[in-house]
Specification:
Mean pLDDT of chain B: 95
Shape of chain A: globular
CATH superfamily of chain A: Thiamin diphosphate (ThDP)-binding fold, Pyr/PP domains
Helix content of chain A: 25-40%
Strand content of chain B: 25-35%
CATH architecture of chain A: 3-Layer(aba) Sandwich
Chains: A alpha/beta (258), B mainly beta (76), C alpha/beta (361)
Number of domains of chain A: 1
CATH class of chain A: Alpha Beta
Order of helices and strands of chain B: EHEEHE
Largest sheet of chain A: 8 strands, mixed
Structural class of chain A: alpha/beta
Low-confidence stretches of chain B: none
Number of strands of chain B: 4
Number of domains of chain B: 1
Shape of chain B: elongated
Radius of gyration of chain B: 13 Å
Number of strands of chain A: 11
Low-confidence stretches of chain A: none
Helix content of chain B: 10-25%
Largest sheet of chain B: 2 strands, antiparallel
CATH topology of chain B: Alpha-Beta Plaits
Oligomer: heterotrimer
Number of helices of chain A: 11
Chain lengths: 258, 76, 361
Amino acid sequence: MDIKEIIKPENLVYQKTKLMTDAPLSYCPGCGHGTAHRITMEVVEEMGIWEDTIGVAPVGCSVLAYDFMNIDMTQAAHGRAPAVATGIKRTWPEKFVFTYQGDGDLAAIGGNETLHACNRGENIVIIFVNNGIYGMTGGQMAPTTLPGMKSSTSPYGRDIATMGHPLKMTELIAQLPGTYFVTRQAVHTPAAVRKAKKAIRIAFETQREKKGLAFVEIVSNCNSGWKMNPVDANNWMVDNMFPYFPLGDIKVNGELIK
Amino acid sequence: MAKIIGAIEVDVEKCKGCGVCIPACPTDVILLAKNVNGKGYHYAYMEKPEACIGCTNCAVVCPDGVISVYKVKMAN
Amino acid sequence: MSEVKLMKGNEAVAEAAILAGVDAYFGYPITPQSEVIEYLMVERPEDRTGMVVLQAESEIAAINMVYGAAGTGKRVMTSSSSPGVSLKQEGISYIAGSELPCVIVNVVRGGPGLGTIQPSQADYFQSTKGGGHGDYRLLVLAPASVQEMADFVDLAFDLAFKYRNPVMILSDGVIGQMMEKITLPAQKPRLSNEEIIERYGDWATTGKPSTRERNIITSLELDPYRQETHNHKLQAKYKKMEENEVRFEAINCEDADYVIVAYGSSARISQKTMQLARAKGHKVGLFRLISLFPFPKNELNKLADTVKGFLAVEMSAGQMIEDVRLAVNGKKPAEHYGRFGGVVHSPEEVLIALEQKIIGG
């Protein structure tokens, strides 16, 4: 059968959601941000809530998330997205509000805002993309940089004695009674993407039911910052990031997974 | 028995040639082209189109959302 | 129906916010303005008007909650005192940069650093010259009474929405803590969500209907030429404020030989000084600034044609005096007097300074 006969509108089984704009993504080739954006927007589309969804973009690689997500969005100061989202959600409690943040934004400069939004049990969704490095500013050490991992500000590897430990923010906030659904996912394989999308769906359903804060960490790659090609970066992530940041649900229905 | 034939369409100019789709394909359909697009990227294309089963794996994992997937059921 | 009440300045701000139909208050306690949030928590405005009150984890979080809610077209405010307002500066810069309306109350205390909890006017520069990073201005109103603490809340919101710009009510520990009899306005209804969408749907992030493009609240522009264009737009807006929003009160300035320029509690004190001076036969007037930005420079410059000298009285080492001198532009002497670091000058001290620096000189 000729390809032209297959590629017809009636045979379409998958295409980019209309909630992603046609602007070319500003991310490096192979970066997980694009996938994380897309599945977030797919969930919003599938739930039919795009007219009632307001996103909050961070500072970091995904600062321009509002260029790519075709919904109303506010760009927050570095680390302040959970506070910005709180302001929106408290004044529009019937809307769906989510933040999209990287590890420097969420776990370093915005640690306090993250902790307190979680602790108050704000009915928002936080999507947390953790690639263990500062991507936008050129590969500096993040709070989630692994022990011994090289970055431009830990050029000889992260020295735990002087630079501290990688921060497991997701485990930390799971301890707070305000969080209802806490999970860690990845987007490096088709199966992982499908699982991560299901988790994001649960997160938005949690918000719909006003059960508390839903937090989805996505462990991702940074092939530029890690100085690898995209496929190798994904493999390195599996071998090195996943042991320290294991995938899976951490808190479901308000209960910690044993 | 119904046979499923699939095909992918790559938005060549938006493909960054990251190659993440290649290991995601269960039937080894995709390779990066020798030619480049306007940005100089070796874009993804169907090297073995006859093997495509339209499973959507490549599109699901594509960070830039440049792959659309089509599928037909052939009764024979 | 208006109501007469005896209230603290801080309480008046809080009550006025409820009555003005404000949608939300986000704050963090700090002396000498904690009564604002305390009053709101006691009053339960959620029950009265549906107004949201939230104690944030920090001033930084509070101003960013304001930023988020202001971006959706809601009427939102915060209050703090000097060290807390310093913490808010990042957020205020973002709010100014993305052109959002909101009201910030600063009940100033002595600094620098943790300073003192006593009254001061040493945040003049920070309030009127920008405060955070970048070329921006706040519209700054300076109440001199508990009544004005109440009245300026609604006025500030009107101006904030007129210009889509943050407005600061610059008070001080004296006005915040003192009690006076005031007349409260009638309750204004809060806007409904539908009204907000109708009025501000062209910019507010209230959720994107299929009938319009998405709204984005951001202060980021990577293209320097476009950022310059945006800055030109901001400057044009500030110029418009200078043309239309100058507010002041000139008392006994018509026949004055000498004029005291002051705002807030210093203006109250200087009014007494003016009386003492007049009793001694000196023709002294008081030029009370109500808007600090825009600064009434044309009016002061005109006054310089008829008076012999100016004394700028402020509880700082000399900040407003710089604007007074720019306005007077060398036509007549303009000197500064003020106690600072939390010390409040007396009318008699101001009189001595007036006699020594201006009249006697």
